[in-house]
Automatic annotation (TrEMBL):
Source organism phylogeny: Bacteria, Bacillati, Actinomycetota, Actinomycetes, Mycobacteriales
DNA-binding region: 7-109
Record's protein name: Transcriptional regulatory protein EmbR
SMART domains: BTAD, FHA, Trans_reg_C
Family (UniProt): Belongs to the AfsR/DnrI/RedD regulatory family.
Pfam families, alphabetized: BTAD (PF03704), FHA (PF00498), Trans_reg_C (PF00486)
FHA domain segment(s): 309-358
Record domain OmpR/PhoB-type: where: 7-109
The keyword Phosphoprotein is assigned to this record: yes
Length: 383
């Protein structure tokens, strides 16, 4: 589809763009020189938006952190020209791959020609297999998806806002697929093989209850009831110390099954743990309502409802902050037994309370100053 036939052969060079790690462009497995950070950022932006035209203004914002110079369009043309020259030298028709549109550029590659596309395709197929009750196939497909990664996404583009946002979102996707693959492995009877991985994951993300459900299940199914109960004790302590809450219903039910030595339904565990929502929202107890509000820099007030408040740049957040330093889904305020708690949703630059970074979550007190990206919010408790 992309290549021009080499003289005397029917060979068509294969294109492979990689952004789940450092940005790379390979032809027949051989890396091509793309250039410095800005040309690589251009290639990454076009890959994320593959088969869609991206206008020059949007590309300028992404490549130059929303502050493009006056001559940015000429610079984009130079970057594109150099990438096309590299493609032509490698035997690929550049006009078929990197196309000029009326207001910008388009990277015309199939999903199988970039690691992001292969990851997404394998993830979807794995989810379908898991939903169809085929855990062995699901485990293989999820493993194929994870094999596309060669580091943190766009890890050679530090400091670029668009790259940081993409990396944060893809980190969450990677974690979800890893969890789904573990579910499938447990359903296939490979519980003992995933214990070590789950120990590392619960250490890295101690407030994510679904990961603890997986660890406790894997330990119990491996015949390690005492270790499973010890994991129950640890997660109780973590949630109490960090958030002042008790475990959610899924953990409580699992703990009772382990205590009573009852069998576990591994397929039911897999279905529950595959839910993305469970990976992004900690189940919290709300026996006593605590109220509060946030005061914005302009003096306006945002009430915190009983269901909580999600903060970020995306329009589906409860509080949308038009701040380039704010991640798409940056933080969430929730009601816990001890009061209102703010949780970092794996933002690019963290959440600060009174100039101190929080680990994953922290309890709020009246007068606390919250730094979300570059925006300072003041928390005001209400009786």
């Amino acid at each position: 589809m992309y290549g021009q036939e080499h003289a005397g052969t029917d060979h068509r060079p294969s294109v492979d763009v990689r952004i789940l790690g450092p940005v790379r462009l390979l032809i027949d497995g051989v890396p091509l020189p793309v250039g410095g950070p800005k040309p690589r950022a251009l290639l990454a932006a076009l890959t994320v938006n593959r088969r869609r035209a991206v206008n020059s203004q949007a590309l300028g914002d992404m490549v130059w952190n929303e502050q493009p110079p006056d001559a940015y369009q000429a610079s984009l043309q130079v970057f594109v020209s150099n990438i096309r020259k590299a493609l032509r030298t490698a035997g690929v028709d550049p006009a078929a791959v990197l196309r000029t549109e009326s207001a910008g550029y388009r990277l015309e590659i199939a999903d199988e020609d970039c690691d992001l596309g292969r990851f997404e395709t394998a993830r979807r197929a794995g989810t379908e297999a898991a939903d169809a009750g085929r855990p062995e196939r699901a485990a293989r497909l999820f493993a194929d998806a994870l094999a596309q990664w060669s580091g943190a996404a766009l890890d050679d583009l530090p400091g670029l806002v668009f790259a940081e946002r993409f990396a944060v979102a893809m980190h969450e996707e990677r974690l979800l697929v890893t969890s789904a693959r573990i579910d499938a492995d447990i359903a296939c009877g490979r519980s003992a093989a995933v214990v070590g991985e789950l120990v590392a994951m619960t250490t890295a993300h101690p407030l994510r209850e679904p990961l603890w459900v997986q660890l406790i299940s894997a330990l119990y199914l491996s015949g390690r009831q005492a270790d499973a109960l010890e994991a129950c004790r640890r997660v109780r302590a973590v949630l109490a110390d960090e958030l002042g809450i008790d475990p959610g219903p899924a953990l409580l039910e699992l703990e009772q099954r382990v205590l009573r030595q009852q069998p576990l339904d591994t397929e039911a565990i897999a279905r529950a743990e595959r839910m993305a929502k469970a990976m992004t929202e900690t189940v919290t107890e709300r026996p006593r309502a605590r109220r509060g509000r946030l005061r914005l820099p302009d003096g306006s007030i945002v009430p915190i409802e009983s269901g909580g408040l999600k903060i970020g740049r995306m329009t589906d957040n409860d509080l949308v902050l038009e701040d380039p330093k704010v991640s798409r889904y940056h933080a969430q305020i929730q009601t816990a037994r001890t009061g209102l708690v703010i949780r970092d949703l794996h933002s690019a630059n963290g959440v600060y309370v009174n100039d101190e970074p929080i680990e994953e979550a922290g309890v709020l007190a009246d007068g606390d100053e919250l730094l979300i990206g570059g925006t300072v919010l003041r928390f005001e408790a209400q009786s």
